Efflux RND transporter periplasmic adaptor subunit (Novosphingobium pokkalii), 378 residues
Amino acid sequence: MQNKAILGGAAALAVLAAGGWWALRTPATISVEPASGARAPAMANGLLVVDPAKAAALGIATAPARAAAQVPLADLPATIAPPANARVAVAATLPGTVLRTLVVEGDAVARGQALAVIASREVMTLSADLARAHARAGVAQSSAARLAQLSREGIIAGARADEARAQAAEAGADVSEKARILGLVGARGGNGTYTLTAPIAGRVTKADIQAGMPVDGMTAPFVIDAAGRYEATAQVPERLIGQIRVGQTVRLPVANGSVSGTVTAVGSAIDPATRSATLKAQLPADPGIIAGRVGSLTVWSKASAQGGSGAVTVPAGALTMIGADEVVFVATPKGYQRRTVHRLGAGDGQVVLKDGVRAGEAVVVSGTSALKALAEAH
């Protein structure tokens, strides 16, 4: 009997111990809410509920999705150069010797700006010829005036007066021609020099000249590339021929963003070695564009032509991968909704989405990785 009582008491103690262990364990398991009362994120139908204070702590920020009129079609390596008709060689008009150079290679110049001063014996000769032509013209004009008066008085025949007028006109033409030549070269007859000037505004890309060297009319010591426009040349892969057309927009990334231009020509013949055709595009001047540079040229097409009539543009940082899906998070009054999206293309730090987001909706662009972690936890 005594043994039964002992066994019964031991059993009771075991039950009490088990109950006490459960009572101590249960609160630690179900008490998941912070003392402040904020609830853990919940997710239903792709909606992630995040307390505003926590969203701010996670650095979540949004930006509106914008309707996309264009879609990046291809990124093509391209070489930048001035157009063929925008490069001008500045030749030495008269033979002579370089006295002084006024610009160096790489300088930007305005139209009419002095480039170099040349000493030339021909300037002295032309100046002397001009002085003699002035003298002859003066004599011829005086003679023509005198004979015209005599002709009116009937003293001489009118033919002699007409001949004198012709000689005066010829002398005047000779003066004008010699003065024009000296004016074109910027000559200073008194010291026998003339000045080479820039015929266009642009940048000096060649300056093969220095003080003391001889020049003649057959050499061009300066080459100037016109300011204001450049030409990009790229190769279009065979698969894109027919999709890229004249007039489409192109963009070239530069240090301060991108520069937009226009496709001006697309070759119709395919190079058998590269299986590509040549594309040419015109670009405006920009400090970030340098002739000879190789860059990535993005060709853009109308979104409607690529099956994206409802396409929108969002920053590239808005997209993330969850499983095999590319997703964005859209801010709604009830929380952040996960949306699976499909892209049409990307360029300039933006992604064009075919579906999943409507224009004007607020897309999470900062804190995306934090929302991804919360979404994957559910």
